[in-house]
Design goal:
Elements (H helix, E strand, L loop, with lengths): L1 H7 L20 H10 L22 H5 L5 E2 L15 E12 L4 E10 L4 E12 L9 E6 L7
Antiparallel strand pairs: 1-2, 2-3, 3-4, 4-5
InterPro entries: Calycin, Tick_his-bd
Keywords: Signal
GO molecular function: amine binding
């Protein structure tokens, strides 16, 4: 869950994406309903100084992940190498699809693997939820795309 919180704290890089280069992907209502029913949608409790409901106007994760701009993750608390080594750079997320009713979003994530010097990619889904004491949706509850394994 921490990795998705860090994603919400990432730096937005302007440049955006156009409709020409957005991969069109859609999910059926059944897929969304199945994932919604099996995804933890209650907000977590964090003990960070920035976890303060008075700051929620500046912590709108839904606005952030649906901004229709690609962004680079400047800071993150996860590694893609199973040994814990940080072998990735240039991590970029681009929104592919969103559902305003369920607060669901699908991103294409790409990164440079510094060991192989190859750009790798995968899809990641998020449900944007509110943490305890918030009315703003400030937490990204992420899963590997189209699975029920929460991260």
């Amino acid at each position: 869950m921490l990795s998705v919180l860090v994603l919400a704290l990432c730096l937005l890089i302007s440049g955006g994406i156009s409709e020409d280069n957005v991969e069109e992907t859609s999910t059926t209502d059944g897929e969304l309903e199945e994932t919604t029913l099996t995804t933890l949608l209650s907000g977590p409790v964090f003990n960070y100084s920035e976890t303060n409901p008075e700051l929620q106007n500046y912590q709108d994760a839904w606005k952030f992940v649906t901004s229709n701009e690609s962004f680079l993750m400047t800071y993150r608390n996860f590694n893609t190498n199973p040994t814990g080594e940080n072998t990735t750079m240039c991590v970029r997320a681009t929104m592919i699809e969103m559902n305003e009713t369920t607060h669901y979003v699908l991103h294409n994530i790409t990164y440079l693997n510094t060991t192989s010097n190859k750009t790798m990619g995968f899809k990641k889904t998020y449900y944007v939820i509110s943490s305890d004491g918030y009315t703003t949706k400030n937490v990204l509850n992420g899963t590997a795309a189209f699975t029920n394994e929460s991260e």
